[in-house]
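The methods section describes the discrete structure representation at length, but only in general terms. Since the whole study asks how a given chain folds, the encoding of that fold should be made plain. An entry of this sort, consisting of the sequence and the corresponding backbone structure tokens, reads as follows:

. . .
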Amino acid sequence: MKHAVAIWTGDCESAEALDEYTNGTYDEEGEYVRSDFMKDTGIEWLDMDFMEIHYIQDEQGLKELLEYLRHDYSQDEAFRNQLPPEMDQALAAGNAVILLYGNDSLYGPVNEFLLRSTDADFSGEAAAFTIQTLVRYETPEK
């Protein structure tokens, strides 16, 4: 199975502001309005169940997030091996991190646009967040 994990960093005033930036809304007619994050990155649709947001309040929070990415986010060694060595510095550049996961599972694809994308696809000039890496890896089907 193919997997992709996109990792963005940025700055937010608060955890609530990060939540507001990443969550879409509905207009008066009940139509979905994309979040500012989706607009900034050019993402038309995503499965929010496969998105994580992390607001980092201090250095301990950063250490915990790095530990999580290296040991708990994915049990697959293939993911950990693809994390760039400069990830520590990249995540320290802001106080907020957005993780977006995609795969091509036998049960149906999830956020499959990530499997076809490159970092450049998400680097708009107005984006409040910067993509740090797009990790791709494969695992045996289960």
Notes: The mean pLDDT is 90. Strands lie at 2-10, 25-26, 32-33, 51-55, 96-105, 108-110, 129-138.
